[in-house]
């Protein structure tokens, strides 16, 4: 009996030690996430450099925030009143959260934690499939350690000219079916049409701009060999993600990935994240023999006003719904 008591006491002390250690790690994270270590603030994440003397020194820490992109729903009367001078009424606008849009329109409590869990899950899954990324470890519920990477970018060709600007970063979208900005650009395409995982490149900024592969090569941003490699890489990543959700009865409509060059060897690899922030997924996908969704009339809700098109799916899943499906 005395031995059992000693054993229980030992485990109790060990439990306290482990908990204290976890508190120490959290305190250590707060030392890292300081303004002086901030490298970049994105739409949904902040990037910090880990200083020397800390664990994972000179690597990067990604802080997944609750910031969310989308657009504001005005309503006809509110839109009219703000146009004729009642700008103070803009605070009454209703945010519609949609990862396919560029502007931050508010925060969703707990979104950062969900995003970090998602990214961790899929980075580990990609590693099992021998697909590389910048991922190293997850050290807190919304903080991830990654290899430093340089975005695929380019300085301004003529900085002395007014209006010239640099290319800060590139982003790649994959599209299994037509919706979002693809349909807004090409409204002659039926929503839900099977696009076969077509890949598009975008310049990132306050407003993302579509850029062709030919333009990337001609401008000297990437070589044709690099472009072909990236196109195949994005398709492979999209395939893994789409298949994983399909196993759980969910259809991935489209998504976007960010790629960069690792500082240690300049290898082009997946950086940033895979989370509800970068994916659109739904239930109720009903494909015909060509892969076109037959239930688009019941699901798709398009709007057209003031020369602008908007589209969203009634069956599109929220971040919390996707979390429950995966976890």
What class would the helix/strand composition place it in?
alpha+beta
The portion of residues assigned to helices is: 25-40%
Radius of gyration: 23 Å
Order of helices and strands: HEEEEHEEHEEEEHEEHHEEEHEEH
CATH topology of one domain: D-amino Acid Aminotransferase, Chain A, domain 1
CATH class of one domain: Alpha Beta
Q: What is the CA–CA distance across the termini?
A: 41 Å
Tell me the CATH architecture of one domain. 2-Layer Sandwich
Number of strands: 17
How does the major sheet shape up? Answer: 7 strands, antiparallel
Strand coverage percent: 25-35%
The CATH homologous superfamily of one domain: ATP-grasp fold, B domain
Number of helices: 8
Task: Give the arrangement of secondary structure elements.
Layout: H1 2-32, E1 38-41, E2 45-49, E3 60-64, E4 67-73, H2 76-83, E5 94-97, E6 103-107, H3 111-128, E7 135-140, E8 143-146, E9 149-151, E10 170-177, H4 180-185, E11 194-203, E12 209-211, H5 213-219, H6 224-246, E13 251-262, E14 268-271, E15 279-282, H7 296-299, E16 300-305, E17 308-313, H8 319-326
Antiparallel strand pairs: 1-2, 2-3, 3-8, 4-5, 4-6, 7-8, 9-13, 10-11, 10-13, 11-12, 13-14, 13-15, 16-17
């Amino acid at each position: 009996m005395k031995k059992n008591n000693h054993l229980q006491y030992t485990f109790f002390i060990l439990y306290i030690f482990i908990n204290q250690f976890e508190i120490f790690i959290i305190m250590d994270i707060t030392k890292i996430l300081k303004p002086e270590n901030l490298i970049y603030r994105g739409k949904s994440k902040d990037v910090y450099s880990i200083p020397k003397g800390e664990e994972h020194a000179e690597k990067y820490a990604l802080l997944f925030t609750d910031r969310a992109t989308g657009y504001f729903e005005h309503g006809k009367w509110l839109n009219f009143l703000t146009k004729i001078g009642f700008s103070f009424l803009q605070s009454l606008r209703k945010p519609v959260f949609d990862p396919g849009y560029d502007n931050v329109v508010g925060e969703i409590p707990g979104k950062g934690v969900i995003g970090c869990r998602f990214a961790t899950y899929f980075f580990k899954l990609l590693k099992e499939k021998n697909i590389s990324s910048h991922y190293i470890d997850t050290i807190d519920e919304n903080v991830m350690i990654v290899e430093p990477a340089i975005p695929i970018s380019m300085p301004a060709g003529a900085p002395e000219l007014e209006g010239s600007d640099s290319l800060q970063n590139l982003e790649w979208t994959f599209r299994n079916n037509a919706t979002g900005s693809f349909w807004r650009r090409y409204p002659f395409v039926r929503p839900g049409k099977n696009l076969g995982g077509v890949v598009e490149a975008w310049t990132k900024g306050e407003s993302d701009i579509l850029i062709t592969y030919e333009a990337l090569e001609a401008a000297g941003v990437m070589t044709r060999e690099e472009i072909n490699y990236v196109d195949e890489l994005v398709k492979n990543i999209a395939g893994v993600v789409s298949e994983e959700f399909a196993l759980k009865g969910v259809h991935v409509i489209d998504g976007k990935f960010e790629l960069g060059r690792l500082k240690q060897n300049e290898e082009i690899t997946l950086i940033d994240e895979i989370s509800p922030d970068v994916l659109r997924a739904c239930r109720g996908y009903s494909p015909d023999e060509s892969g076109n969704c037959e239930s688009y009339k019941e699901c798709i809700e398009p709007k057209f006003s003031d020369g602008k098109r908007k589209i969203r799916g009634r069956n599109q899943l929220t971040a919390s719904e996707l979390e429950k499906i995966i976890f």
